[in-house]
């Protein structure tokens, strides 16, 4: 004798069934070279991620610009004047307009996330500013 066929479940019955938990693969962090004294990129990025949101903290766009600057920074958290991307380049990389990139740089500077080292030439013209990434102390 043959076994009777089980009733075919409906889509609603399938959706209502509890799902089996899927195993989560182990996360492995790539090995990073030791950070230079006084600068830790992971700590900088974690600090940006955990900062309060606007209006009392960083706007999400400013966070994105902060992460981009961390990508451009050297192992010491410094962007020499000849390696600092222009606001237009940051805007393109972040998918935002130039004004938002400039406002984000100002917000990062105001919140002590970056320090811009401004200089002028002999004729009084502004030169590109080097940037140092910092952690706010307040």
* CATH topology tier name of the domain at 39-133: Arc Repressor Mutant, subunit A
Number of DSSP strand runs: 3
The radius of gyration is 25 Å
Low-confidence segments, ≥5 residues, pLDDT <50?
Answer: 28-36
Mean pLDDT: 83
Sequence of strands across the biggest β-sheet: 1-3-2
H/E element sequence: HHHEHHEE
Count of separate DSSP helical elements:
5
Class of secondary structure makeup: alpha+beta
Which sheet architecture does the biggest sheet show?
3 strands, antiparallel
Q: Helix share of residues?
A: 25-40%
Shape: elongated
Biased composition (Pro residues): 1-10
Region (Disordered): 1-38
List the helices and strands and how they pair.
Elements: H1 11-16, H2 41-50, H3 60-72, E1 78-79, H4 87-94, H5 98-110, E2 114-120, E3 126-133
Antiparallel strand pairs: 1-3, 2-3
Helix pairs in contact: 2-3, 3-4, 3-5, 4-5
